[in-house]
Automatic annotation (TrEMBL):
Pfam families on file: adh_short
Protein name: Short-chain dehydrogenase/reductase SDR
Family from the record: Belongs to the short-chain dehydrogenases/reductases (SDR) family.
PANTHER family xref list: ALCOHOL DEHYDROGENASE
Top-rank taxon, per record: Eukaryota
Keywords for the protein's UniProt record, in alphabetical order: Oxidoreductase
Tagged with keyword Oxidoreductase: yes
Record-level Gene Ontology MF annotations: oxidoreductase activity, acting on the CH-OH group of donors, NAD or NADP as acceptor
Signal peptide (from-to): none
Amino acid sequence: FAGLSGRITVITGASSGIGEGIAKVFAENKSHLILGARRVDRLEALKKDLSTAHGIKVFIHELDVTDRSSVDRFVAAIPEDLKNVDVLVNNAGLALGVKHAFENDLDQVSQMIDVNVKGVFTILKAFLPGFMERKKGDIINISSVAGLEGYPGGSGYCATKHAVQGLTEALRKEVVATPLRICSICPGLVETEFSQVRFGGDQEKAKNVYKGIEALTAADVADTVAYVVSRPAHVQISDLVIMPTNQAAPTVVHRNA
Ligand code: 8X3
């Protein structure tokens, strides 16, 4: 992916899953990294791997996107030589539970809104002014096929990802007169810790989500992020949907017996 080398990329939720996958692909392509997540020990390990293997600068810092003061500390701690960020990947996000709306756990709904929606607003507010000032920057929001279509049991999660779609679209229109590029990536089934988190650690339920199907990997999604960012400056990939070959919509999945 020509064009990533020497760029400075911020990734939220970088300690696992798609975020970690993006960090790896960007490191392989010589982008410097600013990685945030709550689990700093995992970021430490990732930093060690990536900086030695690829000779890039990797800055890591604790980040809870639901806590504005945590976001302030994260931004303030970025070293001088990495302050002119080129790429922002809003990746931190989660699903909690599969429940019909009449039985939704409102704490779970609230937490999804805090991370998936308010978290993106908070991070955008932190980095967008710099992008506008420098007239430069790519913003990639990791949305979901759940942002394009609601499905039974997903009212909370789907609502948050529809919100991500709405804010991404509004932002793209706001910066149309600038060189900024705004992209939403909507993955379908990706095998990560996503389903373990969604089902509160129930391994059986989590495994069933990917049963009989070759799900996407974090690396598959990470490749698309690298593709989007490495297009020539006049090319803006606005929306990108990626699903396994045997998935056609959130609930249209062909599973081998
Ligand atoms: C994850 C995809 O279909 O589980 O965002 O909502 S889905």
